[in-house]
Amino acid sequence: MRRRNKRMRIAVIIIAIIVVAALVLTYVMMFPINAYAEPPPTPPPDDYGTSSDYDDSTLPPFPGEEEPEEVLEPTLVITSGPIRIDVGQSFVIPYVMNDFPSGTMMEWESKNPNVAVVSSDGVLYAVSPGDVEIAVRAGGKRSSVLVTVNDLRANRLIIVVDPDIIQTGPSSYEMAVGDVTKFVPKIEPEGAKVDKISWVLGNSNVASLTQNGDFIAEAIGQTQVTLTADSLVTSITITIVESGVPLDTIWDYLRYGVIIIIIVVVIVVLLVWMANRRKKEKARQKAIAAKRRREEAERRAREEASMYDERRDMREPRPARSEERETMRVSGAAVGAGMAPPEEENSETERPLTLDDLE
User: Fold this and answer.
1) Read out DSSP for 316-340?
2) Are 158 and 192 in contact (CB under 8 A)?
3) What's the Cα-to-Cα distance from 174 to each of 166, 171, 177, 216, rounded to whole Å?
4) Region 219-240: what's the mean pLDDT?
5) pLDDT value at position 234?
6) Residue ranges of the domains in the chain?
7) CATH code of the region 156-244
8) Residue of 196, 195, 218, 191 lying closest to 206 (CA atoms)
9) Structural contact between residues 175 and 241, judged by C-beta atoms closer than 8 angstroms
10) Mean pLDDT taken over the chain
11) Fold equal for 75-150 and 156-244
């Protein structure tokens, strides 16, 4: 009985613990939702929308009513003031374009294309002097700017000298008495205009100069030629020397000429010596070759003669000793008696071949 009661108590305690744990878990899971949930909207006062003293801009809209979006006005403005450029130059016109619908096209326009033109991306090109209005349009908006185009201004002046004139320095030249040349003015950048160009001669006792740039060297000395164009000035120095070739120059020519002649003579002597040496070498080689050919011919002649003697000995039998002795006695007696010895069958003796026979 006691064991049964004890078991019942334990079961009740376990059930109670499970119920409490379930309640605690449910509360913990619901706590964040309750803690961070927005409070319900406060209902508007009774005079909402009728009283002018009440600011209802902070109140939320009625249920189902959407808050209207703020609509911004598009803006298109050229941010540059009056523009001044020179002929031939280009300029990117700055502008601001805001709050236009996507894909809005812009149109640039020049009121006088003879003065300046503008591209579709706002690049201005100056054509000729004058004033012109440049405008841009987009989505019903328009903005414009005044453009003044000036003549292309010169920034550098150069005196072009004939390349045949001797240059002795960056801006100094040398001419002989009686020489005539023409100086040509050059203005940079190309196409720039100037109001007036004038020439000035520093020393008129040694030369003469016209306003067209014609220069004549008349006497020995030095002078300066100055070119003026608006506010630009440049000059060169001309040194006039005696006509003809100076003595020092002649001496230089002679000295260099002698050196060149000596070098040429040395080269010719070397070439002749080498040619003679080569010729002698060829003659020596030729003599050696001829000697070798001659020796070879003599050796072959001796061999052929020896072979001929051997063949003859083989064809003719040798006489017996008794016949030889008899022949010798008869020959000796005939010689002693003053008679001629008996002739042999072959009176002409054969001789061996020589080099002359072979040739």
Assistant:
1) SPPPPHHHHHHHHHHHHHHHHTTPP
2) no
3) 5, 11, 10, 12
4) 92
5) 94
6) 75-150, 156-244, 247-304
7) 2.60.40.1080
8) 218
9) yes
10) 79
11) yes
Could you tell me how far CA 11 lies from the centroid of its own chain?
A: 101
Residue 118: other Cβ atoms inside 10 A: 20
Q: How far is CA 352 from the centre of its chain?
A: 87
**pLDDT score, position 335:** 46
Confidence of residue 87 (pLDDT cuts 50, 70, 90): confident
Burial of 157 from C-beta contacts in 10 A (0-12 / 13-18 / 19+):
buried
CATH architecture of 75-150: Sandwich (2.60)
Higher pLDDT, 351 or 305: 305
The two three-digit tokens of residue 136, written as one number:
């841009």
Task: Output 189 or 245, whichever has higher pLDDT.
Answer: 189
Does residue 337 have a pLDDT over 60? Answer: no
pLDDT tens digit sequence for 4-33: 777 778 888 888 888 888 887 777 666 554
Name the residue type at position 348.
Answer: E
Per-residue model confidence (pLDDT) at position 179:
92
First to last CA, the chain: 167
pTM: 0.38
* pLDDT > 50? residue 319: yes
What is the share, in percent, of the chain residues with pLDDT greater than 70?
Answer: 73
Nearest alpha-carbon partner for 153 in 207, 83, 223, 229: 229
Tokens of 180: 């005539």
Pairwise pLDDT comparison (138 vs 72), residue with the higher score = 138
**Cα pseudo-dihedral 275, 280, 284, 290, rounded to 10:** 80
CA dihedral 246, 251, 252, 258 (to 10 degrees): 150
Cβ atoms of 84 and 150 closer than 8 Å: yes
Q: How far apart are CA 16 and CA 9, in angstroms?
A: 11
Residue 308: CB atoms within 10 A of its CB come to 13
| Cα-trace Rg, the chain | 66
Cα 280-283-286 angle, rounded to 5 deg: 150
